[in-house]
Amino acid sequence: MTTPDQNPAGQNLTDQPTSDPLPSTLVDVAVIGGGAAGLNGALMLARSRRSVVVLDSGTPRNAPAEGIHGLLGNEGTPPAEFLARGRAELRQYGGLVVTGEVASARAAEPSAEGDLRFEVSLADGRTLTARRLLIATGTRDELPAIPGLAQHWGRGLVHCPFCHGWEVRDQAIGVLATRPASFHHALMFAALSDDVTVFALDGLEVDPDTRERCDALGITVIEAAVQEIVATADGGVAGVRLADGELVPREVLVAATVLHPRLDGLEELGLALEELPAGMGWKVTADPTGGTEVPGVSVAGNVTDPAAQVGLSAAGGALAGARLHGMLVMADADAAVAAHRPRSAA
Prior knowledge:
CATH architecture of the largest domain: 3-Layer(bba) Sandwich
Helix content: 10-25%
Order of helices and strands: EHEHEEEEEEHEHEHEEEEEEEEEH
Strand content: 15-25%
CATH superfamily of the largest domain: FAD/NAD(P)-binding domain
Low-confidence stretches: 6-14
Distance between the termini: 69 Å
Shape: elongated
Largest sheet: 7 strands, mixed
CATH topology of the largest domain: FAD/NAD(P)-binding domain
Number of strands: 19
Mean pLDDT: 92
């Protein structure tokens, strides 16, 4: 399996955003990840007058996409433009966005009053101390290890009929089937095109019911081994070359990836993982509001909901941000009560 390049050569995927200075003082919340989930969670916190810093590595999962789809009011908006607007909105309320790759994050010694503390270190040696953490680092897509495949990620190689379906309608589509659920993928794309071919990879068995369903819908199933993906002169998809040398012309490829939460440098936090069904991969375990088993640490977006599109990721960020603010409210209230109580007589 291979991981697609999130920054294909020659493609300007971000607007090279300006970085705010990293605070040297304690902040309420450090948000690790500057996508829709992280920025929207930070926005909720900043509007509640919380000091919040978003740490953004600048490698969003949807960077190769030409536009956002399925998000009312933002249909077709380029991802970089969407994120730039989000950063500007956050800064209106005093939130900070710092460009940098997180090298480590760990629980630190609590305050004298028992309030939680976390220390986040960046790859360049800078550090930040926060009372709470919101992890919104997203997920990493692992592709089938077929020569020539990864270079087409986000353009000639797609994975979601809702994200890309309209754009590839009526084209010659090839579905690279890595697991039984891939055939359902094929049915979804067959609703968009009459020319769909499934390539059953690595000896994937095609059961009789699935074969009959594909035959009835005019979906071709090829069980021969795949050798490579062939590109056109301008870098598009020309087709799929089989092990016997035959080239099956295709214009678009579809692959269901194996998903891995992006937790590089965050291992010390001890976030629990759970396996996704049907061999899809893994996600961070969390409750509906993003709460984890690690005190003071919440998660949002694709790191815990890999199938979430931009809108649902942003909504998850909002819930997680609201939850963290509520936790801080109670911590502040408890500290105020402790300070207000008269001291016991000596």
